[in-house]
């Protein structure tokens, strides 16, 4: 019974090697055991077939992205926005343009969240300031000073105005 020599296999798989498509321009250098994975997933010099149905063009992997945008077999059915906004357009450049402008894009959502956090911080500071004014006004009202009672009235009016329509804070 013949069996593979595992020790020899491990030794050979750890030897450094170049991509077998180095003459085509691939600069990858790595372990021989990783060569098949490199060729299958990463090597930009490997010939691949266009995935669009009806095209079948064979070209180097590095040219596939450019080809995919101008492929004559591009589907003419609308493609939904990947950010989930509900916008549908024909793929390729129109979709890329929409994705750059889409309000649901992660970068734009993060910017909006940042702006809301700043507004929240400002409103929190304003609330704390109003709470201090209210507590001062209440303490002066309890002391009974007639001159300071006017301040209490002004603070209450200001709070009523800030509370919004239909809300009265007393």
Could you describe the 3D structure shown?
With 170 residues, this protein is mainly alpha-helical. Helices cover 53% and strands 9% of the residues. The chain has helices spanning 6-13, 35-41, 61-70, 93-101, 106-143, 146-163, and strands at residues 16-18, 29-31, 47-49, 58-60, 79-80, 88-89. It has a two-stranded antiparallel ribbon with strand order 1-2. Strand 3 and strand 4 (58-60) form a beta hairpin. Helix 5 runs antiparallel to helix 6. The mean pLDDT is 82.
Key phrases:
two-stranded antiparallel ribbon, 170 residues, mainly alpha, elongated, 6 strands, single chain, 6 helices
Q: In angstroms, what is the radius of gyration?
A: 34 Å
Amount of beta strand: 5-15%
Oligomeric state as shown:
single chain
Enumerate the spans where pLDDT stays under 50 for 5 or more consecutive residues.
Answer: none
The coarse silhouette is elongated
Strand order of the largest sheet: 1-2
Mean pLDDT: 82
Number of helices: 6
Instruction: Give the fraction of residues assigned to helices.
Output: 40-55%
* SS content category: mainly alpha
Give, in order, the helices and strands.
HEEHEEHEEHHH
Query: What's the end-to-end separation, in Å?
Result: 95 Å
Largest sheet: 2 strands, antiparallel
The total of beta strands comes to: 6
């Amino acid at each position: 019974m013949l069996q593979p020599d595992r020790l020899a296999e491990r030794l050979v798989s750890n030897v450094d090697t170049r991509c077998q498509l180095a003459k085509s321009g691939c600069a990858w250098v790595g372990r021989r055991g990783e060569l098949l994975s490199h060729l299958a997933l990463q090597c930009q010099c490997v010939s691949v077939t266009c995935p669009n149905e009806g095209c079948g063009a064979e070209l180097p992997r590095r040219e596939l992205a450019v080809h995919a945008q101008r492929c004559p077999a591009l589907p003419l059915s609308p493609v939904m926005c990947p950010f989930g906004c509900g916008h549908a357009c024909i793929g390729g450049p129109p979709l890329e343009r929409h994705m750059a402008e889409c309000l649901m894009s992660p970068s734009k959502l993060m910017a909006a969240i940042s702006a809301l956090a700043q507004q929240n911080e400002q409103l929190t500071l304003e609330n704390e300031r109003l709470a201090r004014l209210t507590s001062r006004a209440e303490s002066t009202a309890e002391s009974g000073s007639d001159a300071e009672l006017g301040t209490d009235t002004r603070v209450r009016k200001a709070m009523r105005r800030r509370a919004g329509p239909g809300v009265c804070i007393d």
